[in-house]
Amino acid sequence: MVNMKNPLFLVLMTGIILFASCSENSKNKSTENKKDSIELVGVYYFHGKNRCKTCIAVGNISKNTVKKYFGNDNAVVFHEVNVELDSNKDISNEFQVRGSGLSIKYREKNGMFKEDLTELAFLNALTNPDTVENTLKAKIEAILKVNRETK
Predict the structure, then answer these.
(1) What angle do helix axes 129-149 and 53-70 make, rounded to 10 degrees?
(2) 3-state SS record for 73-126
(3) Where does the pLDDT of residue 92 fall: very low under 50, low under 70, confident under 90, or very high at 90 and above?
(4) Distance CA 81, CA 29 (A)
(5) Residue 120 lies in a domain
(6) What is the pLDDT of residues 106-124, one digit of tens each?
(7) Cα gap 91→30, rounded to integer Å
(8) Domain limits at 135?
(9) What's the N-to-C CA distance of the chain in angstroms?
(10) Do 63 and 45 form a contact (C-beta atoms < 8 A)?
(11) Cα-to-chain-centroid distance, residue 96
């Protein structure tokens, strides 16, 4: 039998419930700030019109992390994508996202790659926001390092 008083169990269940409620929002997406540049890393925050507290936190953390550490670097671009806009259908299909989420898309010499950070972000945004910030920062720095060493 599951011990309902176990704090880890309660945190995990809360995260799962919040993630599930945020993921039901919509089917379509669109980037609100499309940029043509030398983008090596795109940070994509997906959301619907109605966002829960966790959804808002994920968006704020990811946007602020990009701005704080990579604000002057055109190679890193933050994209906020409203999944409810028909104009965002292509990006939705590309990432296979139908609700809230956080992903990075990056370029390396072998092509383009994507990494889904949704689970990490939604499980930690309210209780351990530094985990989300530090993980996102470290992943971006590693990608930039690889790209800049190979040029």
Answers:
(1) 40
(2) CCCEEEEEEECCCHHHHHHHHHHCCCCCEEEEEEEECCEEEEEECHHHHHHHCC
(3) confident
(4) 6
(5) yes
(6) 988 888 999 999 999 999 9
(7) 6
(8) 7-149
(9) 56
(10) yes
(11) 13
In a domain, residue 1? The reply is no
And the tokens for 81?
Answer: 């994508």
Residue-by-residue DSSP string for 34-87: ---S--SEEEEEEE-SS--HHHHHHHHHHHHHHHHHHTT-TTEEEEEEETT-GG
How many structural domains compose the chain? 1
CA angle 107, 95, 98 (to 5 degrees): 160
Identity of residue 122? F
Which CATH number fits the domain that encloses residue 129? 3.40.30.10
pTM of the predicted model as reported, rounded to 2 decimal places: 0.75
**In the predicted model, what is the mean pLDDT of residues 44-67?**
96
* CB atoms inside a 10 Å sphere around CB 8: 8
